[in-house]
Write a structure and sequence with these properties.
The chain is an alpha/beta fold. It folds into 3 domains: about 120 residues, Rossmann fold (3-Layer(aba) Sandwich), CATH 3.40.50; about 240 residues, tm_1862 like domain (pyruvate-formate lyase- activating enzyme, Alpha-Beta Horseshoe); about 50 residues, no CATH class. The radius of gyration is 22 Å and the shape is globular. Bound molecules: iron/sulfur cluster. The site of iron/sulfur cluster has 9 residues, from helix 6.
Length: about 425
């Protein structure tokens, strides 16, 4: 490899699913022997996200004049010309094309074609990818994300994702199980099931297995997997089998991240969500009844078009009524091409101020959770840098050389700094 040549790299933006797919892309590029390529796996969830990718491309081109710059991901899928018109860019790949090995062969990756983006709405399949540890550096080989589903059939009025990812489609359960077996054999102690709308898992598969069926099968067929975690779910679409697992299965982590978005019924209707605030509260109460150590995270948008002060107060109150702890708060930002962008907008300053109030509430919730956890002994999964995570995904700092990354250890929780706990190895 000459001095000018270097290993190809993937720069990932956005969600866990993109992180997973970046591992697939890197594997394809390595197998194809593609060198000196810089691949941007972009996100389009907000206008800001798209701006960030374009800035990164320009900067990278300045610093790497000879590199091959390839752009893929949702921003490239939704608006390929925007990137094809950038002089810095050599090739634009769609979200389906980025998972095809041939896209990274010299014939295509170094060819004259500048745009390979097909109609994502015509895609009906999503293949499982055996992302083995050799290529895979998920979180330092401690926790692995496994894609079980892609795309979305819903049309929430603020969301551009379905136009980047296409219709909902599931990975066959058998492929998921064998991929997880491979990852556990490579030493992973925790697997996170990820996708775009994972509660719609299986609707397109023979026998329409549910997310609960899939999780049951994984835990049965991979008994050596210590921890199974579910990424973000739509609470009203949680199936009865999943609820039973929540109640009965220790290896299913007591941590659910809920795609709630708001706590006011009128706003939820204008978002075209499938639930009302009473449904969210009922779901959380039921999950807590079944699993008293359950902890909830949630996505919440502040300043959605037409949101009044009273409507916002309903969202703020929902945090207590659902017992939410890990809040991901987003001030609304209109996304061109979505119905919400055409609605009467709430002014930005109000949206930002409301987001700050929600975040402050989130900080209080985390503090209360850390206080409740103090003095207990818990099993944590150590990551790198002296940090581990409890089953509830609470970060714990353990300054002990015996606390090796990838190890499941018992610690006594002795203190906290408002964000993470301090742990001491149990004797
Ligand atoms: S469920 Fe709604 S928010 Fe989630 S990806 Fe689909 S359209 Fe977007």
């Amino acid at each position: 490899m000459s001095a000018a040549q270097s290993k190809s790299q993937v720069i990932t933006f956005g969600c866990r699913l993109n992180s997973y797919e970046s591992e697939v892309i890197l594997g394809h590029a390595e197998k194809a022997g593609l060198e000196n390529a810089i691949i941007f796996n972009s996100c389009a969830v907000t206008a800001e996200a798209v701006r960030g990718v374009r800035q990164a491309i320009r900067k990278t081109r300045r610093e790497n004049p000879a590199a091959r710059i390839i752009v893929t991901g949702c921003a490239a899928q939704i608006d390929p010309d925007m990137f094809a018109n950038m002089l810095e860019v050599d090739l634009v790949l769609g979200n389906a094309e980025k998972l095809e090995a041939r896209s990274f062969t010299p014939a295509i990756a170094l060819g004259n074609e500048r745009v390979r983006v097909n109609d994502i709405m015509s895609v009906r399949e999503t293949a499982g990818h055996m992302v083995s540890a050799r290529e895979n550096s998920f979180e330092g080989r401690v926790r692995a994300f496994v894609q079980i589903q892609n795309g979305c059939d819903h049309r929430c009025t603020f969301c551009i994702i379905p136009y980047g990812r296409g219709p909902s489609r599931s990975v066959a359960a058998g492929s998921v199980v064998s991929e997880i077996r491979g990852l556990v054999a490579e030493g992973y102690r925790e697997v996170v099931l990820t996708g775009v709308d994972i509660t719609s898992y299986g609707a397109d598969l023979p026998g329409t297995p549910s997310l609960g069926n899939l999780a049951t099968r994984i835990l049965k067929l991979v008994p050596e997997l210590p921890r199974l975690r579910i990424s973000s779910i739509d609470p009203v679409e949680a199936d009865p089998v999943l609820m039973r697992l929540i109640a009965e299965e220790e290896r299913l982590m007591p941590h659910l991240h809920l795609s709630l978005q708001a706590g006011d019924d009128m706003i939820l209707k204008r978002m075209k969500r499938r639930h009302l605030r009473a449904d969210a509260i009922a779901f959380c109460q039921e999950a807590l009844r079944l699993r008293p150590d359950m902890i909830f995270g949630a996505d919440l948008i502040a300043g959605f078009p037409t949101e009044t002060d009273d409507m916002f107060e309903n969202s703020l109150r929902l945090v207590d009524e659902c017992g939410l702890t890990w809040l991901h708060v987003f001030p609304f930002s209109p996304r061109a091409g979505t119905p919400a962008a055409r609605m009467p907008q709430t002014d930005r300053a109000t949206g930002k101020a409301r987001a700050e109030r929600l975040r402050a509430k989130g900080t209080e919730q985390v503090h209360a959770h850390l206080e409740r956890t103090l003095g207990t002994a818990q099993t944590i999964l150590m990551e790198n840098g002296g940090i581990g995570r409890t089953r509830q995904f609470t970060p714990v700092r353990v300054m002990d050389p015996r606390a090796l990354p990838g190890s499941l250890i018992e610690v006594a929780l002795t203190g906290h700094d408002g964000k993470s706990l301090e742990g001491r190895l149990a004797a």
